[in-house]
Amino acid sequence: LQLHHSGRYRCEGTLKHHLRWWKESALPMMVVVQGVPVSGVSLAVQPPGGRVAEGDRLVLACSVAAGTGPLSFSWHRQGSAAPLATGPRYELRAAQHQDSGRYHCTATNGGTAADSPPQWVTVLGEWDAPASGASY
Q1: Which residues contact 124 (CB under 8 A, 6 or more apart)?
Q2: Using CA atoms, how far apart are residues 120 and 59, in angstroms rounded to an integer?
Q3: I want to staple 59 with a disulfide (CB 3.0 to 4.6 A). Which of 40, 46, 100, 104 is the partner?
């Protein structure tokens, strides 16, 4: 059953014996198919923990636990008014220091929308790495 199946329905039937009989229900029935609201939005990050070396690849993936589609996704970083991208994945092929921040995705089905919990991403430059021979 899909959302576009909403509409007015009536029952029709025929009986064939010596003569052909046709019968139709008196009043049409309105059927409304409602979508399941989007919920349980989650964000996964690769590498795990959201810490990536500058120049390395960072992948964020958004998923939902429930919600009838079609689903669409948008990506947001704290401090950025406009969405960074759309789609269930957001990939930075070569992460830069300015890509650090708090990210979340928003999933919507046109009727409802929900945000994932935020995920901190830290892009580490060479100044963040321990000096050679140093131990922590």
Answers
A1: 51, 52, 53, 54
A2: 13
A3: 46
Displacement of CA 129 from its chain's centroid (Å): 35
Q: Give all domains of the chain, ordered by start, each with its CATH number.
A: 39-123 (2.60.40.10)
94: CB partners within 8 A, 6+ apart: 55, 56, 57
Classified as helix, coil or strand, 15 is: strand
12-53 confidence digits (pLDDT tens): 776 666 566 666 677 888 888 777 899 999 999 999 999 999
Q: Are 122 and 51 in contact (CB under 8 A)?
A: yes
- CA quadruple 92, 98, 120, 46: dihedral, nearest 10: 20
- Residue 93's nearest CA partner among 62, 48, 58 is 58
Q: Retrieve residue 109's tokens.
A: 């089905």
